[in-house]
Design goal:
eight-stranded parallel beta barrel, 392 residues, 40% helix, 18% strand, alpha/beta, 12 strands, single chain
Amino acid sequence: MKLQFPKDFIWGTSTAAYQIETVSENAWKGLKCKDGSIFDKCSQHDLHRDEDLEYICQISNGYRMSHDWAKLQKAPFAPFDPKEVAPYLRFMEELKRRGKHIMLVLHHFVNPLWFDNEGGWEKEGNRKMWLDFVQKTVDTFGHLVDTWNTFNEPNVYISNGWLTGEFPPFKKGRLLTARKVLKEFQRAHEEAYDIIKQKSKAPIGISFNTVKFKGEVFPGQIIAKIFDWWFMDYCHKHFLKQDFQGLSYYAKMSFRPLPLDNMNNAEELKKLGRRTDLMWEYDPSGFYDIFHRYWKRTKKPIIITESGICTHDPKVRIESIKEYLGWIHKAQQDGIPILGYFHWSSIDNHEWNIGLYYRFGLVSVDFNTGKRTMTEAGLFLGEVAKNNSVEV
């Protein structure tokens, strides 16, 4: 069956500067990850920009990207470093010359060390330093941006930084501090929205991470509801000032009674007969319910800012893309305005605290040599984007 998508639908791929460039002066530098790899040179995108741009342009008509704050701005309120501005500017200008839609993310999980040393997001008012970065970004790059994300997945960043302790600043069980950071993020987002609007007509949103939480045995039902409330409702209500709702989705999380994932509970999930990727339980149908949930709540058009599967097999990735696009199309038929789909990710990247083994790229990367290779999945999505349709 052929599924046709609306005219002007945005087909894109997505990355984060911090996961694909040589690491800068930030708290992730030198971190030993779950698979034993070290967070350092990542995918060396900064040494392969022209090559990566060719792949990006081959696959889709849009690109979601970020800039490395620590590279651009070496101290609080400092001018941007022209040597760092130049390659970003050339890269974006070439994307625009080729007619590509650019979504720019202003905060993607990482701060400069100088910002963290000033108290980071825990200190009320520190947002002014980030807002200065926002203003300078709008002044320098804003004319090339088609859509903006102020924050990428604030619920993930805050939950992992202050509740599970898996992301910098590696603090665990700090619920009150997490709430304080969330409030600072809210103020930063709302003020950034106003700053951007002064010079840019491009729509503004956040990327909000979503998960299908499912309690299956007592007291897992209660724990799942608590997770769902914090992650899906409470965090979200702080970011309602936006022009579109950016959504990402990767996983279902079953509670029996504690949450299961495929990195730590592989045997149990296998015995239960669950579909998984290398990281999580896999259930694309959950995205359909989430579309309805957030459309009902916000009545804002939706852009899928991230969607993908962790696998080393391009054929599995192709089937995953088909499944996700099927649910997206079904939600569109229900009348939900879903304006675009940004696949995660354009190229293999360093998957934060768990490492290099966990692959999402449409283009594979040899992390030792830097060699890039287009996969079948990248070619497949390129055909989908060209035809604005998919056979399922």
